[in-house]
Amino acid sequence: MDLGNSSKINISLLTIVTIVLIWSVYKPAEYLTWIAEVAPGVVVIIIAIVTYNRFRLTVLSYFIVAILSILTFIGGHYTYDDVPLFNWIENTFDLQRNHYDRFGHFLKGLGAIVVREILIRNTQLTKGAWLFGITTSIMLAVAAFYEIIEWLSTKLPNREDGTKEFLGMQGDIWDAQWDMTFALVGSIIALLIFSRQHDKLLKKLSDS
Q1: 160 Cβ neighbours under 8 A, 6+ residues apart
Q2: How far is residue 148's CA from residue 89's CA, in Å, rounded to a whole number?
Q3: How far apart (Å, rounded) are the C-alpha atoms in residues 189 and 109?
Q4: Alpha-carbon gap, residue 73 to 82, rounded angstroms
Q5: Which one, of 176, 174, 130, lies nearest residue 151 by Cα?
Q6: What is the DSSP string of 62-89?
Q7: pLDDT per residue over 152-187, tens digit each?
Q8: What is the pTM of this model?
Q9: Quick check: 75 and 83 in contact, CB under 8 A?
Q10: Are the beta carbons of 49 and 11 closer than 8 angstroms?
């Protein structure tokens, strides 16, 4: 990734995310479910925009934010258990469920790179075992917190159908545990694959 063109890349990412968001809000499967699913992505984007001049992240981190936001917008539009491509995969390979939710939680592990960057730039942590361990712990905590929010949604009155779509359990009583596990595994893999490239981008950012 060329940091010399980082501003253009970031604007392009924001444009793509905005287009997908507009598409997502047009005739979603269920509006209240859409709001619940899309809200975290919208909040993260707003934070990224507000802090852009004061605390600009690397292109890799913004790319990850864009990918994860688009992921939630697609899930919010169709609901996580009814995304067409994964319905096709389910039917073609005779699977027991639509795995977009599992795929989404695995990809959310990419957020470990963003957490890693914030820790490196705002704490005394340097690359090594402590940084790796704390980053993965934070990602697992975020995944667990989201599962708690999903559980709390079941306590809302008159929300049986919408809550079912929001949870996306598809009859699996261990869905929350699987979701957290996939997020943790995704975080570990993301750190193992992207940390070296991330360090190079951080160095270029600090030198610029």
Answers
A1: none
A2: 29
A3: 8
A4: 13
A5: 176
A6: HHHHHHHHHHHHHHHHH-TT--HHHHHH
A7: 766 666 555 555 554 455 557 778 899 999 999 999
A8: 0.89
A9: yes
A10: no
